[in-house]
Amino acid sequence: MGEVKTLKYFVNGQWKESKTTKYTDAFDPSTGEVIAKVPCCTPDEVEEAVAAAKAAFPSWSATPVIKRVQILYKLRDLLIEHMDELTMLVAKENGKNWEEAQGDVLKAKEGTEQAISAPSLMMGESLMDASSGFDTVLYRMPLGVFAGIVPFNFPAMIPMGWMTPMCIACGNTIVLKAASFTPQSSMRIAELYKEAGLPDGVINIVTCTRNEAEILLTHEDVKGITFVGSTSVGKHIYSTAAATGKRVQALCEAKNHALVLKDAPVKRVAAGIINSTFGCAGERCMALPVVVVQEEIADALVAEIVAQAKKLKVGPAYDKTTNLGPVINQAHKDSVVKWIETGIAEGAKVVLDGRDVVVEGFENGFYLGPTILDHVTPEMSVGEREIFGPVLCIKRVKDFEEGLAVMNANPFANGSVIFTQNGRYAREFARHTDGGMIGINVGIPVPVGMFPFNGNKLSFIGDLHCLGKDGFRFYTENKVVTTRWFDEETGESTAVNTWDGTI
C-alpha cells in the first residue's frame, strides 16, 4: 500500500492543517486503496477562506486586466510543463484512462486560454452624443468574492478551467470547495498559480461537506456561486443563494440522447457511440447514455455496438493501453449496479453485462465493464434518470418524429445528438431539439471554450452559462456612466428639465 497523505486546505497562499476531527477517504479507483485523508474543514476555516478572498479583492481588482492575464499566460506555460504530472494525478485520483486524464488537463489549459481574452471581452460600449451633449459609457466591473462548488468527475477542467481562470481574469477572487474524492489536482494547480505570480488570497481551496458549504450560499461577502453537480443540489443552491441577492450558475444532471436514423453509417456511428457512452466510464454530464434508433437498423446497430464494446480493454487508469477505467469508488459502483438491476426488473434486455468484470492484478479496483440494455421504453426509469456510469440504453422508434418526441420528453437537455446523412432532418433536429449543445454526427458536442457550455431545462439553472461571453458577463457587473460637460452658457443656466436633457 502506498503513502496515505493527510491533506491540508489552502488559504491566503498558505497550506494549513485543519482543526477538524472528520476526514473523508479519497481512493485510487484503479486499486481500491486509500491515497488521501481529506479534511472536512470547520465552519471557521470556511469563513477564513472567504475573509482571505475578501481581503485580496481590492488590490487584485485594481490590478490592470493586462497584468492579471500575464499571470494566466505564465500559468498556461506551467500547465504544459507539468502536463504528465497533472495527467497522472487526475488518473490516479479520478480513474480516467491516460488519454481522458490528459484531456481533463488540456481543458483546464483551454479555459485558461479563453480567460486570457479578458482584455478584449471585458471591454464595454460607448456612445458620444447619446443625447445632445451627453456621452454614455458602459464598463464591465468585477464584483468581489465568488464561490465555486466542484464535482468529482473533472478535477482539473471544472475548478481550474471553467471556474477559476475567468473569475480571476475579470478581477474577482474565489473560494473553491473542491470535491473531497478528487481534490489534489486543483490543489496542485493552485500551487502552479502561486508559482506564476498570483497574489495570495486570490484563490483559496477548502474541502468540506454540504453542511459547511452552506455557509458560502448565504455569506454576505460572497457575491456569486458557480456550481456543477446534481439537479436537486443545484435547485437548492440556486434558491438559497439567489434569495440573498447572489448571482448563480448551476450546471446540473443530464440524460443525453442520440437519434440514429436509418441512413446513418452503422460502423462509424457505433464507434462514436462507444466513445461517447463509455468514455470517462460514463461519469460526465456530456456522456451519451441513451441511443434512440430507427427500427430498420436497430438490430444491426446494436450488434455492432456490442461487438465494438467487447473489444474495450478495462483496466487501471495509468495503463496507457486501457480504454475503460474504473468508476470513482465502491459506493458509486454499487449505485450503477443497482441501476442496471432496476433496468432488468423494468423489462430491459441485457445484451452486454459488465457487472462481473475483474481486472487481473487490480481485483480491488472499482471496475465495471460496458453494459448495454436494449428495448428500453419511455416508462422505464433507467432510460430517463442519470446513472453516471458505463451503461447504454437503447430505445427503438419508427421514424424521426417519434425519435425527436422521445428525446424532448426527457426533463434534462444538456446535449442532444443526431446521426444522419440527411440535411433536412439534421436542420429540423437542430431547430426543434430541446438540447442546449447539439451534435450533428458528433457524439460529444461540447463546444470549445469561446462558446458557452450551454445546458437547457433541468440541466442548467440560472441565466448566464459558464465559458464564452456568458462567462465574462457572469463574473462582471455593468456600470453605465453618462457624462456632460458645461460650456459657458449652460454653466450659468439654472433651467434643468425632468430628465436633465437625457431625452
Automatic annotation (TrEMBL):
Provide this UniProt record's keywords sorted from A to Z.
Oxidoreductase
Query: What Pfam families does this protein map onto?
Result: Aldedh
KW Oxidoreductase (keyword) present: yes
Key word Oxidoreductase present: yes
Stored InterPro entries: Ald_DH/histidinol_DH (IPR016161), Ald_DH_C (IPR016163), Ald_DH_N (IPR016162), Aldehyde_DH_dom (IPR015590), MeMal-semiAld_DH (IPR010061)
Q: Which domain of life is it from?
A: Bacteria
Name all Aldehyde dehydrogenase domain ranges.
15-481
Q: Any idea what this protein is called?
A: CoA-acylating methylmalonate-semialdehyde dehydrogenase
Source organism of this protein record: Lacrimispora defluvii
